[in-house]
Each structure stands twice: as C-alpha cells, then as structure tokens.
Amino acid sequence: MNNVWKIENEWLEWYRLTPQERWHANQELWQFYLSSGGSLDSEPDSQSPFDSLYLERGKALTFFLCSTVTGK
C-alpha cells in the first residue's frame, strides 16, 4: 500500500518558514486575535473541579496565593 501524505499549501508554506519567521507570524496572529476582540481569559468549565474558582477569579486567586504562602 502506498501512503501518500497530502499537505495543504498553507501548511507547506508554514513548514518552510524559519523558526524566527514562524515566531514573527505567530505574533502577528496574536495581535490580530486580540485586536478583533479575542481574549486570553479562560472560560469557565463546569466539569472542572476548580469551576467555583472561575466564578470569583480575583477572590479565589487571592485566597489561593495567601493560603499557599501562609500555609493556612
């Protein structure tokens, strides 16, 4: 059996870039994503055991950090 990998031209162009060129392209994509209203905030996950932490992000994070530092 002859397995032939078919790769789309867009992926071939990406593979041919140097690591520096990929880094630059990646930064441009992130800038576009954020400027078009994208967010880096995580979304609540009702199946996560930490779901309640997402509801009160600031308070939960503060509690976690304080309890970690103080050990209480």
Structural class by helix and strand composition:
mainly alpha
Number of helices: 4
Rough shape?
extended
Query: What is the H/E string?
Result: HHHH
> What oligomerization state is this entry in?
single chain
The percent range for helix content is: 55-70%
Number of DSSP strands? 0
Total domain count: 1
Beta strand % = under 5%
Question: What do you see in this structure?
Answer:
With 72 residues, the chain is mainly α. It has one domain (9-70). It is built from four helices and no strands. The chain has helices spanning 9-16, 19-35, 51-55, 57-70. The longest helix is centred in the middle third of the chain and has 17 residues, at 19-35. The protein is extended. The mean pLDDT is 75.
Task: Summarize this structure as a short list of keywords or feature phrases.
4 helices, extended, 72 residues
Summarize, please:
With 72 residues, the chain is mainly α. It is built from four helices and no strands.
Tell me the layout of helices and strands.
Elements: H1 9-16, H2 19-35, H3 51-55, H4 57-70
